[in-house]
Request: fold
Amino acid sequence: MSTHTIVALVENRPGVLNRIVSKWRQRGFNIESLAVGHSEVPGLSRMTFTVDGTTTDIDQVTKQMYKVIEVVKIADLTEHDMVHRELAMVKVTAPPKERGGIMEVVDIFRAKIVDVATESLIIEVTGTEEKVDAFLEMVRPYGIKELVRTGRIAMARGGGTPMAIEGAKGEQHRYRPAGEGKAKVGTLI
Reply:
């Protein structure tokens, strides 16, 4: 069993996330992380899942995901050379006498202080999961009051991409969702 990074392009409609997540739940998978946001194609969102499983099991679930009508494209980026990052915001206890030490850690990890209060700081850190984990270990002695992490987002390296939709050039094309006009599946027009 290994960690897989699955990326899906889906129509941005109500209930899509629930239908897709239920495909993983039905097979007994625990989703380690899930990030969803707009893509380069208007009307499509990009979902990035991190799940543990065998390649065979992951392939079965991705085939089931294609049965969800709003799914346009799915790729397992695990075997691709990819860039992956995570964002975390951490609220740390920071009385004035401790701030110098915290700021040194922030500098070492190329993080940013995004909010300053009388007794706390909110710090933003971006990088691999390992970098975020290492940062958290370094600030834990100061006292973590609150923590939020986005989960992994990922893209394949280089010019080619397994998530490209043929003919798509970002904003130059408009996506026509399934059910509009004569298109049976989502197409670019």
User: Anything to note?
Assistant: Helices lie at 16-26, 55-65, 99-108, 129-139. The radius of gyration is 20 Å.
